[in-house]
Design a protein that fits this description.
The complex is a heterodimer. By secondary structure, chain A is mainly α. Chain A has a domain at 386-468. Helices cover 58% and strands 3% of the residues of chain A. Chain A has helices at residues 3-15, 22-31, 33-41, 51-57, 60-63, 67-80, 84-96, 101-104, 107-120, 125-134, 136-141, 155-162, 173-182, 191-201, 236-244, 247-261, 268-283, 288-297, 299-302, 313-324, 336-343, 366-380, 386-397, 405-415, 423-434, 449-463, and strands at 186-188, 213-215, 225-227, 230-232, 402-403, 439-440. Chain A has a two-stranded antiparallel sheet. Chain A has a two-stranded antiparallel sheet with strand order 3-4. Chain A is globular and about 80 Å long. The two termini of chain A are 22 Å apart. By secondary structure, chain B is α/β, with parallel strands linked by helices. Chain B has a single domain (9-152, 215-365), classed as Alkaline Phosphatase, subunit A (3-Layer(aba) Sandwich), CATH 3.40.720. Chain B contains ten helices and twelve strands. In chain B, the strands form two sheets. In chain B, strands 1, 5, 6, 7, 8, 9, 10, 11 and 12 form a nine-stranded mixed β-sheet that branches. In chain B, strand 3 and strand 4 (55-56) form a beta hairpin. The radius of gyration of chain B is 22 Å and the shape is globular. Classes of the chains: A mainly alpha, B alpha/beta.
Chain lengths: 470, 380
């Protein structure tokens, strides 16, 4: 298989998903780039670890009250899904519409929101915003249940414009008020009763809180509103229709998608790509799928975007686990995975504020870097992990199982990616491998010295700077 | 280093989960206490009295000893307006010193930034425990988060020391490369180098440590021992942080609460003994807090989330005594069934920041707050 095709496909699968094992990569290259892009954009049956299996083994993941259990549930899905873009886009929206456990005290409501992102995340942006406005977790997070006719609460109205669509400078304070008025009545069913039940300690027992959306016409301000220069008796849907029509919205969404899927920083060429994304946003009736398609097919994405992003902690961890082949079955201690990304700086389902996480280089500090490297180094050097065994089997099968140090390093870099690394990185790895001479994997027993050598090398490849980058 | 750095250090112990202050500083002569706490109370003959009206939980022996030495300040009725009874939100409030909106920076992260604006010493603040608490989080401020001091650093899972050294050498080579003009790779390289440097320095601390003090074998005591090791190694660390829990005693409170306080008190006692043995008692002040108190009325097996709590400041530099007002238990004085706070926690923060660390508190705690006179003026 052509090395260039492999490199490009690995890049696509890292960005639109969480990376690929060698087997997955070869199968994808056979299907071809265009076909794979379409498969990604049209998630079908995820065939992820079934929920009843998870619940049978993980009692805590039955009720999903607690944060670590809920995070682990989502992790299992990300690790075992056959439709990675469905999870990646959910992660994108989760980061953007950052709704946090801190205020809700209820993890199930957050997972319901994530499920909504799966269903609507690649579709029309206006549909997604309407669903978001009805999402109970969001309603509570931004206090829209306290937004009443005659006594508006501007929190959701403001953030909808500032953080979720157009961005500051594209609307006025008056627009915020009118927007808030339009969303009066968009509230929780039986809110007072739910609040009473929550007042003691909303985390438990199971089933105590069942937030759902209800529209209270009596509490809705149906008067005339002037929003972004248009006047009418706007309800929430009409406001959203006006929002998504704006160029500022197209730019905002295209930029955020670009930064999440292509590159942390936007240069002049990146601006051109964003312009193209904005055009497709309008041409396709605000469909996110179309915007991503343009991006994935752009020359920029296929060349300049390689390694142009720092992996977020969840991305890094899930990618490492998919490569290592661990946690494909219910595994004791899976809830620890949620803690791990928290130590790395990204607590799933608990963004620090509605602004979400600061990405790119801000993921990296002296504490988080050690946590990131230690976790993946340990996982990818563990000889009992199926993915690691698969790498060793491939090494043993090719070249009769005999490899010189440079060959070993190059093959490992290939099988872990393929990864493109600096000369210094490669030289350091080769020097490491050379100390023990040529490697003979023929007729070696599982876990013996030859395999240990491979494990140690994989540890260092996983620890490299380049592996931290998407 | 030519000279030992002896600037004052602050040790913060977070009691996670909401400590029941009524059973910590017990109003053992108040009938209302026994009325509201038919099941979950400390009998008056069991408390360790600190005066005619209040006594410590019987598990707090070492802290009672320190109280008798005049080294313990109890801040009663500590809290903030519109109490939040959610663990996460309330802890965030304490961490960011921002009760009214979502804070972005930790108060101690800001303090570290003020103490060391250029980040010259990556060990100015050290957390003992995994994952950085938000109190220490501040963009651009490096803080070490140490799970286990002896193995802190890269590849702690590699048992073979030789293999580990070899891996570390290769790692250093990979990250030491100039990376040309690639800003991202340079930053990764610099950060990794800082982290390893910090780890290398920190790991010298246990090696240099000698002491006759025996710390109990539980996480909080071992963390305080690690703090002592780092302190005596004079690495320039000013802020130490750790947490213990869970104090969220909705059920089975009496036994759990007793055990937790036995652990915390034992740890604090050993730590203070260690400071004394090494002649460092004047250099350190401890601050113990929790994110909220618990309900006045018990639920039959434990207590639920409340508000208004107690905090402790401990050290030789402390002017021992009770500060703030002990909240009234009378129904008309309660706040939604809870103890009514009477002093904002930012007053205590300001006290520690200005009187102990010598920092201007207002920018750190987002406002001016009246301070307590609980630190001896002579501790200069």
């Amino acid at each position: 298989m052509h090395q260039q095709d492999m490199t490009l496909m690995a890049h696509l699968l890292r960005r639109a998903g969480f990376g690929a094992t060698r087997d997955e990569l070869e199968a994808a290259v056979t299907r071809g780039y265009e076909a794979v892009v379409e498969e990604l954009l049209h998630p079908g049956d995820a065939q992820a670890m079934p929920e009843d299996i998870i619940r049978r083994y993980h009692v805590d993941q039955s009720e999903l009250r607690q944060l670590d259990a809920a995070g682990a549930t989502w992790m299992y899905r990300m690790i075992t899904t056959r439709c990675p873009l469905e999870e990646k886009i959910a992660l994108f929206w989760h980061s953007l519409f950052a709704t946090g456990y801190a205020k809700l005290n209820q993890a199930r409501a957050l997972l319901n929101q994530v499920d909504m992102f799966r269903r609507y995340g690649l579709g029309r942006f206006d549909t997604l915003l309407v669903e978001l406005s009805k999402d109970p977790a969001m309603i509570i997070w931004l206090d829209n249940n306290n937004n009443h006719k005659g006594a508006i609460n501007e929190n959701y109205g403001r953030e909808l414009l500032e953080l979720f669509s157009m961005g500051i400078g594209n609307y006025t304070e008056q627009d915020i008020k009118e927007c808030s008025r339009a969303f009066t009545g968009w509230t929780l069913g039986n809110a007072e009763y739910m609040a009473m039940r929550a007042s003691k300690d909303s985390i438990w027992p199971y089933g105590r809180i069942a937030w759902h959306f209800t529209y209270r016409d009596a509490d809705h301000d149906d008067g005339a509103k002037t929003f972004l220069g248009e006047t009418g008796k706007f309800n929430g849907e009409e406001i959203i229709a006006l929002i998504v029509r704006q160029e500022a919205t197209a730019r905002f969404i295209s930029r955020r998608l670009f930064q999440f899927f292509a590159a942390d920083d936007i240069d002049a060429e990146g601006e051109q790509v964003i312009q193209a994304m904005m055009r497709s946003y309008f041409d396709a009736g605000y469909e996110i799928r179309a915007v991503l398609r343009i991006l994935f097919h752009s020359d920029y994405f296929k060349s300049k975007a390689l390694y142009a992003r720092v992996k977020g902690p969840v991305e890094l961890l899930v990618g490492a686990l998919r490569l290592a082949g661990s946690y494909r079955k219910p595994t004791l201690g899976a809830h620890q995975l949620a803690y791990q990304t928290f130590y790395m700086g990204q607590g799933l389902l608990q963004p620090p504020s509605v602004e979400g996480w600061h990405e790119g280089l801000e993921w990296i500090d002296s504490g988080s870097l050690l946590e990131r490297i230690n976790f993946i180094a340990k996982e990818l050097s563990n000889l009992s992990n199926p993915g690691v065994r698969a790498i060793i089997d491939r090494l043993a099968a090719e070249d009769g199982g005999m490899l010189t140090p440079p060959q070993l390093v190059d093959r490992c870099l290939d099988l872990m990616g393929p990864l493109t690394v600096d000369e210094e990185t490669r030289a350091a790895l080769v020097a490491f491998a050379t100390t023990e001479g040529d490697l003979n994997l023929k007729e070696c027993q599982p876990g013996d010295a030859s395999e240990q050598r491979v494990g140690n090398l994989l540890r260092l490849v996983a620890s490299s700077r380049e592996f931290q980058l998407a | 280093m030519a000279s030992a750095i002896r600037d004052k250090a602050l040790v913060v112990i977070q009691l996670s989960g909401g400590n029941d202050c009524l059973n910590t500083v017990v109003p053992y002569t108040n009938d209302l206490y026994y009325d509201f706490r038919p099941t979950i109370h400390i009998a008056s003959e069991e408390v360790l009295p600190i005066n005619d009206a209040f006594g410590f939980n019987p598990s707090m022996g070492p802290i009672k000893r320190l109280w008798d030495e005049g080294k313990v300040a109890v801040i009663s009725g500590i809290g903030y307006p519109h109490p939040d009874r959610s663990h996460f939100r309330s802890m965030d409030i304490w961490h960011t010193a921002e009760p009214e909106k979502i804070g972005q920076e930790g108060w101690l992260g800001r303090a570290i930034r003020t103490l060391d604006p250029k980040g010259d010493n990556v060990l100015t603040g050290v957390n003992f425990g995994r994952g950085l608490p938000r109190a220490l989080g501040c963009r651009g401020v490096p803080v070490a988060s140490v799970g286990n001091l002896e193995t802190y650093g890269l590849f702690p899972d590699l048992q073979d020391e030789q293999a580990r050294q070899f891996a570390l050498e290769t790692f250093a080579k990979m990250y030491g490369g100039a990376a040309g003009s690639d800003m991202v790779k340079s930053f990764l390289g610099q950060t990794a180098t800082d982290a390893l440097k910090g780890a290398d320095i920190l790991r010298t601390a246990p090696a240099q440590y000698t002491s006759t003090v025996a710390y109990p074998n539980n996480p909080v005591a071992q963390n305080l021992k690690s703090m002592a090791q780092v302190l005596f190694a004079d690495l320039g660390t000013r802020i130490y942080y750790t947490q213990h829990g869970s104090f969220d005693t909705h059920s089975g409170e009496l036994a759990t609460h007793a055990k937790l306080w036995q652990e915390v008190s034992g740890a604090v006692g050993a730590f203070m003994d260690d400071l004394k043995e090494h002649g460092r008692e004047d250099d350190v002040v401890l601050f113990i807090f929790s994110e909220f108190g618990r309900r006045i009325r018990d639920n039959g097996s434990g207590t639920d989330h409340g508000s208004g709590g107690a905090a402790f400041i401990i050290g030789r530099a402390v002017q021992g005594g009770m500060y703030g007002e002990y909240p009234s238990l009378k129904v008309e004085d309660q706040l939604e069934g809870d103890l009514h706070f009477n002093n904002d926690f930012r007053c205590t923060y300001s006290t520690l920041l200005e009187q102990w660390l010598g920092l201007a508190p207002a920018p750190i705690v987002n406002g001016q707050f009246e301070q307590f006179a609980c630190l001896k003026a002579s501790a200069a």
